[in-house]
Every structure is written in C-alpha cells, then in structure tokens.
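Shall we go through a protein fold together, starting from nothing but its sequence? Label the sequence line and the structure token line clearly, so we can match residues to local backbone shapes. Would you write everything just below, so we can both look at the same thing?
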Amino acid sequence: MKYLIKKMRELADMSQEQFAKEIGTTVVSINRWENGKSIPNPMAQNQLNLFCANHNIDIADIIVEKYRYEHNDDRLILYHGSKEGLTGQIQPKSREDCDFGVGFYTGTDTIQPLTLVCGEPNPKFYVVDLNLGGLKVLDLELGLDWAMVVAYHRGYMDIIKGTEMYEKYAHLFDGYDMIVGYIANDRLYTELTRFFNGDITDTALMNCLVALDLGKQYVAKTQKGCDAFSIVSESDIYPMELTALQEKAAVRRKESYAIASKIEKQYRRVGKYFDEILRGE
C-alpha cells in the first residue's frame, strides 16, 4: 500500500501537505502510509480512489507495476493469485474445468492473477520462482491443439467420448510434470465460448488469439512439479486495489470484445467450426 500511495502523490506532482489537504487528512497520516507504518481505513481508501479519478491516474497500472518482480537470467519468476492464501505444501489443486485441468497455476504476467482473484473477499498475491530442472515439461504451442485442450477440460468434448480424438486430448498430458501454454484469460473467454458453441470458426479464433497477445501460464500437474516452486513473496490485496482491478478487468474485456468483433467479421466463413472439427471434417 505504501508504494501505491506514494506513487499516486508523485504522479499528481504534489507535496505531502498538498496531498493531505486534497484528500482530507493530515500530513502525519500521509507520512505513516508512505512509510508502511499504517494503512488508510476504508473511508480514506475511497478518498484516494476519488483523488485518482480527479487526476486521471490509473490505479490499476500502478498496482500491476507494484506487484511486478524484477526478473533476471538466473530465475524464472511467475505469479499466482489465491482466493484465501496458500497454506502448507503447494499442491496440484484447482477446479477440474480450468484450462489445463487440475493443477497449480502460475503466469508470466501480473494482471491475470490479480484480476482473477479481485472479486474474492480476502485474496493473496504470490511471486514464485520455478526450477524446471528434472521436470518433464510439455510446451503447448498456440494453435488448434491448445484450443482443443481447453475444450476438453471445459467439457465441450464430452459428446465424442470414446473416440480417437477425445482420447488424444484426455491423455495428452500423461506423464508430464509441468504444462506451459497460453492463458485463456478473461479477455478471451467470450471468444472461446463462441467457438465452442459454433458461432465462429477456428480461423477466426486463432486470429483473435494472436491479436490479444496472451500471456503464458506454467501449470504443475504433479506434486513433483509443485515442489519445484519456491515462494518469493506473499502480499495482501487491499479493498482500494480490488476496486481498481475489477474496473480494469471490465475495461480489458470491453477492449478485447471490440478487437475480436472486427476479426470475427473478417473471417466469418473462413476455416472450420467446432462441430465440424469434432466430426473430423
């Protein structure tokens, strides 16, 4: 929180005295906030949100920068958002209908895990590093196989259970400790659903994937994969930050929808529909 408050004051080019006066508090409070000795109460956080709106300051961008960790060549740094926090040993647990099935999910970008948990009451944000040595890793390229893997884990392929195609994706990850692939995030959710429901073709979907510049996720499928992670830091996400992130997520979805709509029109009848692919046509 101290980074966030100091950064918004600096972006507004104000002294602590000027800042305190505008948001209706004391210089002592500002100093304590910026030094991490206390945090603003909910009413003060509302005032800070209003301050940023009045000065055209994007809080979400500051938050993303705040949580970003400095990378170097010696460590693979990744990010994880948790609804309530991690306790004990990291384990391959998640919903079954996640992109790559049950596992421990981390990503290369800060914004995805932050927006993923911003609607939860007590979320935690983690920076982790990963040692891939000794792990069996599958790097899933961005393409139709990636989309079909997501379709399988979301249950859209259940109608062809027992077929060769179904079995291919049911067992694609067998024997692997770690799956690396692109994130079917909130920016792409609508387009994937439209593809699975037969509203757009695979060509339209693939072009949407490229245009939206998705981040990558590293998903541990086994305990061995989970044990390769080390927690670098754990952070609370404060109410003011949650509000800003929720607004940012809505803006990102709207922007993505506009981009995807243009692509859908361009490739309306080019390529194959999902049901045609399932039938092997």
